[in-house]
Write a structure and sequence with these properties.
The chain is α/β, with parallel strands linked by helices. It has three domains: 3-164, Rossmann fold, CATH 3.40.50; 185-344, 3-Layer(aba) Sandwich (Rossmann fold), CATH 3.40.50.1220; 352-539, Thiamin diphosphate (ThDP)-binding fold, Pyr/PP domains (Rossmann fold, 3-Layer(aba) Sandwich), CATH 3.40.50.970. The protein has 22 helices and 18 strands. The strands form three sheets. It has a six-stranded parallel beta sheet with strand order 2-1-3-4-6-5, sandwiched between helices. Strands 9-8-7-10-11-12 form a six-stranded parallel beta sheet, with helices on both faces. Strands 14-13-15-16-18-17 form a six-stranded parallel beta sheet, sandwiched between helices. Helix 3 runs parallel beside helix 5, helix 3 crosses helix 16 (414-424) and helix 11 packs antiparallel against helix 13 (336-350). The longest helix is centred in the last third of the chain and has 18 residues, at 535-552. The protein starts with a helix and ends with a helix.
Length: 553
């Protein structure tokens, strides 16, 4: 059997449905083998970043490794950002890159860089296939590592001449499932003891708890014990945020309203957060507050995070066990202050929800999107200041209904992520929210979305600037400089691809357009003027003043 055919058989054996890629001459044999596959669909993209972001999002939403493909050299270097995106964000992804023949190449060092070495610090596993018979074992190992906790990126390099070889006795390897062991009974009893004697405990939910079994276990835990919870940005929606025990989202690291509750807790039960995602709170060496770390892996200790107890094992199993241990002694926690904070949070979040000034305030945008989308609708965010507003103000009702990245926090991922979400869930409404800067980084994937005949709404928040950095620049007292630019006519730009472009002139007009676009066919791109003038006042000044006043009361 030809090695490229054997590689595709091994990928089929792993359950691969899609390969996203931009191939080159070095992987034409592999491309031909994919063409003849009855199980795998190849999706051509317009930039390797698009392929990587789509594959990573597939991994994030399914738990199965997404697969992307590029050629050697510049094709492989274009996957570097997406490798870091998947690795830091714990998204299982397999990258396949081509390479010149390794036995008898006649092109010298043309386009050749050491891609395997380049991928070393960015992946869990990187390897060149040097013998065709080894390909199935390499692929099985790559998928195993990509998908096991903590998930991440892996890389396989396939030289052109190896792909063209034949293997006389090909074999595939069984896909052996694995189960993470449960935490020890002794550790669980110790954790239950600490929780039992706490007076003001809070539950923190982070990205690693975003598993179906863990979500159900956490919901039961909260409802059975009446414990209040908050989440990280990447933990949104793991429990329905309409739950009366939900306090809010730690969209900032400190000095936000929810931190008043965090600072007054005597115990933080941290489920599924590690410091790769931007920390939702800081620990201090003289802090009396205890922290229990519940995760698939032990806490990595640093100056900001050094928990007092690790409960390591299957998260769902750990939470279910703690629920059973604590239910007989469930008690009324000292939640009065926390509930006061919750009331203040809710009052603050509602302040600009109905403000109809135009250009639109980001808080108003969030309100319109939430009221327009059904409960199971999906929002994918690129990276910008609006991400903070969505994290704080957007109540997520379902798992994976607000898809954002707070680990690498790269721009350019929002549109490819939305394309992947719509491919996986064609019957759900999907909105991609992007800043004008992030949108232009991978806007060429509009063509990919149109070619795939997707129904998708893309909102571009147009302020002709890198708004997040402007906000930071103002907070640090610098003069506004170096962050503004001129955008294209986004309506004309959309129409040049064959998409439908819209430019609202009021909040009411935007609401009408968004409702119509969500129920229409094809790609709809909304050029929405946004007003960020209150960012500094609210996020840098008023929050801190309010927090100080609350502490004194």
């Amino acid at each position: 059997m030809k090695v490229s055919d054997l590689i595709v058989k091994a990928l089929e054996n792993e359950g691969v449905e899609y390969i996203f890629g931009l191939p080159g001459e070095e992987n034409l044999d592999l491309l031909e083998s994919i063409r003849t596959s009855e199980k795998i669909t190849f999706i051509l993209v317009r930039h390797e970043q698009g392929a990587g972001f789509m594959a990573a999002t597939y991994g994030r939403l399914t738990g199965k490794a997404g697969v992307c493909m590029s050629t050697l050299g510049p094709g492989a270097t274009n996957l570097v950002t997406t490798a870091a995106y998947a690795q830091l964000g714990a998204m299982p992804m397999v990258m396949l890159t081509g390479q010149k023949p390794i036995k008898a190449s006649k092109q010298g060092k043309f386009q050749i860089i050491d891609v395997v070495e380049m991928m070393q610090p960015l992946t869990k596993f990187t390897k060149q296939i040097t013998h065709g018979a080894h390909a199935p074992a390499t692929i099985r190992e790559a998928f195993r590592l990509a998908q096991e906790e903590r998930p991440g990126a892996v890389h396989i390099e396939i030289p052109e001449d190896i792909a063209q070889e034949t293997v006389d006795t090909p074999r595939l390897f069984d896909v052996v499932d694995y189960r993470i062991p449960d935490a020890s009974n002794e550790t669980l009893k110790q954790a239950a003891h600490v929780i039992k004697y706490a007076k003001k405990p809070l539950l923190l939910i982070g990205a690693s708890a975003n598993r179906k079994r863990a979500s159900k276990a956490l919901e039961n835990f909260v409802n059975a014990l009446g414990i209040l919870f908050f989440n990280t940005q990447m933990g949104k929606g793991i429990i329905d945020e309409r739950n009366p025990n939900y306090l809010g989202t730690a969209a900032l690291s400190d000095h936000d309203f929810v931190h008043e509750a965090v600072d007054n807790a005597d115990l933080i039960i941290n489920v599924g957060h590690d410091t790769i995602e931007k920390p939702p709170f800081f620990m201090e060496t003289d802090d009396d507050r205890k922290v229990i770390h519940i995760n698939y892996f032990a806490a990595e200790i640093d100056a900001l995070y050094f928990p007092h107890l690790n409960v390591i094992g299957d998260i769902a199993g750990s939470i279910n066990s703690l629920t059973e241990l604590l239910k007989p002694v469930a008690k009324s926690w000292h939640n009065d202050f926390f509930l006061k904070v919750k009331h203040n949070v809710n009052s603050h979040l509602k302040k600009y929800e109905e403000d109809d000034r135009f250009p639109i305030l980001p808080q108003r945008l969030v309100n319109v999107v939430r009221h327009t989308l059904p409960d199971d609708g999906i929002v994918t965010l690129d990276n910008g200041i609006y991400k903070i507003w969505f994290a704080r103000n957007y109540p997520a009702y379902k798992q994976n209904s607000l898809i954002l990245d707070n680990a690498l926090a790269t721009m350019g991922a929002g549109l490819p992520s939305a394309i992947m979400a719509k491919l996986l869930y064609p019957n759900k409404k999907v909105i991609s929210v992007n800043g004008d800067g992030g949108f232009m980084m991978n806007s060429q994937e509009i063509e990919t979305a149109i070619r795939l005949k997707l129904d998708l709404v893309v909102i571009i928040l147009n302020d002709s600037a890198y708004g997040m950095i402007e906000w930071k620049q103002e907070d640090e007292g610098f003069t506004s400089y170096g962050l503004t630019y001129k955008n294209p006519d986004f309506v004309t730009y959309a129409e040049s691809f064959g998409a439908t472009g819209h430019r609202p002139n009021s909040v009411e007009h935007f609401n009408e357009i968004l409702t119509e676009a969500l129920n229409a066919k094809g790609i709809h791109i909304i050029d929405l003027a946004v007003d960020y003038s209150l960012n500094h006042k609210i996020l840098n000044v008023l929050i801190k003043e309010f927090s100080n006043n609350l502490e004194k009361k």
